[in-house]
Amino acid sequence: MVTIKALSVTAAAALIFCGTAKVAAAATFNDVARYSTTISANNDIADIYYPNPSNLKTGNYSFPVALLLQGANVDKSDYSEYASIVARYGFVVVVPNHPRSLPQYGFTGLLPETSQIDAVLVQMKTENSNSVSPVVGVVNTQKLGLLGHSAGGVVGLSAIANLCLSPVQCEGSFNRPNELLAGAFFGTNLRDQNGVFFPINNSGIPVALLEGTRDSRALPINAEKTYDQIQNSPKALISILGANHYGITNTNNPTGPIPDPNTPTIPQGVAVETVARWSGLFLRASILDDKTAFDYVYSTGDALDPNVSVISQAKPVPEPSYTWGLVTLGASSAVLGLKKLKPHRHARPNSW
To answer: What is the structure's pLDDT at 166?
Structure first.
């Protein structure tokens, strides 16, 4: 039996204040619902978040899939706020718990791997055709974006690069599916045990790296080095000022994963909303060719949002397309004149 839960996503709809600066981004869908299902291919339990307008079944909607690959030992429930906000931007967000045992590393717990990508694609085709599924008929199973946190971002980056990094990220073999069109990853870098960063041949697939400037688990300097290894534009490196490694989760240092000793200097709710907004808009710009989202990510958003610092390389501006009512509200003159200082980089051992 499917239980549907209606969610009130107040963070994404609220105005966010930082001193006298005001930033707000309003997405199309105010209402989001959630249900849980089992991924048939691997028996993972997954939470599925989806836009839930009153005319969902009659409005001719077609929402791309966004698969969120969890950090090591971070429970799917810890991403509920983030996933709900991303869903508001017009995506069906799938958040599985993927238990694994790697005795050679002394690890048993939650850890993502590349096989989840094909498993979720197959499952969402089933959900889309199942008459009792809450999302029947409204999922665009030909368009997939990846989201990821920490180890999940590593899996996402390796998948976009069409790499099989055995056995932690990939057991057996992996071939990047044609449906994979973009990825946005928080607290992530891609390097080997010797600290050598992998070249990421993304074949033109857009990639965004989001990093907290107070992250001591995946150092900001390593996000920068990973960004440099992404071989093709479009790409973006979005620094969340004052966030630590868990700026994407409902609470700082949730139970389960190794904590980040650095205390964030940005309120947790603001950090989550900021990471989710930039993730959602990046996917809209990349997967839906939404010009308003594109302009925000690559042009206007850095000045409008006092909580980020952005570097990027963009492809040519896409042709105007249907933006589903996405509105980016203006900012006060105080925001437009704000200068954001780049955080000072401290070298620390990385231990994600």
So the answer is: 77
